[in-house]
Design a protein that fits this description.
Shape: globular
CATH architecture of the domain at 10-185 and 267-295 and 320-377: 3-Layer(aba) Sandwich
CATH topology of the domain at 10-185 and 267-295 and 320-377: Rossmann fold
Number of strands: 17
Structural class: alpha/beta
Largest sheet: 7 strands, parallel
Strand content: 15-25%
Radius of gyration: 20 Å
Number of helices: 10
Strand order of the largest sheet: 7-8-1-9-10-12-17
Distance between the termini: 27 Å
Order of helices and strands: EEEHEEEHHEEHEHEHHEHHEEEEEEH
Length: about 375
């Protein structure tokens, strides 16, 4: 391991649904959310992942006592052999590469897990809850690190990181943003209105369950981002404000009366706070240098068609180059110096496969203190299968 004593530590931050959830009441911390376990796929087990729909002073209430806590990141969820065979390894290749280079990671959920001289952390969080809560934990964690780390952030993890950097860009040495939806979109709206079927299981991530989460509302388009993303059955644009509860009730996406509508209204207000935290607030040159990984080989819709009240579809919406979840055009950070954009042919969950992350981290270390870097001279390739 060259320069092992001088390299900054590395932190990996997963995306939405990117870690196991575990039972807080069992001594062994039993996994209760693993989207590919046989008992869940066959609908033999459907643990209730719902969150309380009540809020206190703008914060979603916690379960009492807390029954579910974040576990390790998703890695070979079916075991190494079957996961490799079915190509559902998720973060396994990345984590194995980093562990070979830096040693086993410390799982962290906040500043209390920071240990001296630890070269590799995985920051894990409850992806059901508000990004605002998680940003506070991540900010405290990054502040406590003695050396600003190099951060690899996938999907929603990159939004968490950027929100922290808007408060203090010096928290981080450099960053790899992998498929991060910096531009809001509607790709999670079908999950909130029709749910997501896991094999034969329609319950574990039903629409009713997912609507109790806070995080999906944070991916919605904000202000001008919404232009052209919501169409009627004739292909005509429906102009809406996605952070106004009236949009949801008028189009049958949420029942207008009752606890759920009140919850969604609170969640939308919470999302506005988070979206506001992503508006660049520091000088461009103060942000850490970054490498962006974007997918462009999978036709991807970033909007939906309202086929009837309460039902949306992405099938008839225009497809653009992307990773199957987010389009290539929405994953560029709004400011800062992007040293290189690597184009991947992999799908969203595995977009980092093929990226030589060790070489990418080394490149960022070399250029970190170069004020006027010619990014066209940075040579960094991606190997796609």
């Amino acid at each position: 391991m060259p320069e092992a004593n001088t390299r900054p530590p590395v932190v990996f931050i997963h995306g939405y649904k990117g870690c196991f959830l575990v039972d807080n009441f069992t001594e062994s911390k039993t996994l209760i959310y693993n989207f590919l376990t046989l008992k869940h796929v066959l609908s033999m087990s459907s643990p209730d992942l719902s969150l309380p729909t009540t809020w206190t002073e703008g914060v979603q209430d916690q379960q009492s006592p807390v029954a579910v806590i974040p576990g390790p990141p998703l890695s070979d969820p079916l075991g190494p052999c079957l996961s490799s065979l079915l190509k559902v390894r998720v973060y396994a290749p990345l984590l194995q590469t980093l562990e070979t280079e830096y040693g086993p990671p410390i799982l962290a959920q906040g500043p209390e897990e920071v240990l001296a001289h630890t070269p590799f952390y995985v920051f894990t969080y409850d992806w059901r809850r508000s990004n605002n809560e998680t940003v506070a934990l991540l900010h405290g964690f990054l502040e406590k690190l003695r050396t600003p780390p190099q951060v690899i952030a996938h999907s929603n993890g990159g939004l968490l990181l950027f929100s922290c950097l808007n408060k203090n860009p010096a928290l981080v040495h450099s960053a790899i943003y992998a498929a991060v939806p910096f531009k809001g979109n509607l790709t999670f709206l079908p999950d909130l209105t029709q749910g997501k079927k896991i094999g034969l299981n329609k319950k574990i991530l039903s629409a009713a369950v997912q609507r109790t989460f806070s995080l999906p509302y944070h991916i919605l388009p904000y202000r001008s981002e919404a232009a052209g993303l919501f169409l009627n059955s004739h292909g005509e644009e429906i102009r809406v404000d996605w952070h106004d509860i009236k949009t949801w009730t008028d189009h049958g996406l949420v029942e207008p009366d009752g606890a759920e509508a009140m919850h969604v209204k609170e969640a939308l207000s919470d999302a506005v706070l988070f979206k506001s935290s992503l508006i660049p607030s520091q000088p461009k040159d103060s942000y850490p240098k970054s490498i962006v990984v974007a997918g462009n080989a999978v036709p991807t819709a970033d909007g939906v068609t309202l086929t009837k009240p309460g039902t949306v579809s992405m099938e008839t919406f225009e497809k653009k180059p992307g990773d199957g979840r987010f389009t290539e055009s929405c994953v560029q950070p709004p400011t800062g110096t992007v040293v290189k954009t690597l184009i991947s042919t992999h799908k969203h969950d595995s977009v980092l496969d093929g990226v030589d992350v060790i070489a990418a981290l080394e490149t960022l270390r070399k250029v970190n203190n170069v004020p006027d870097i010619d990014t066209s001279e940075v040579v960094l390739e991606i190997k796609d299968e």
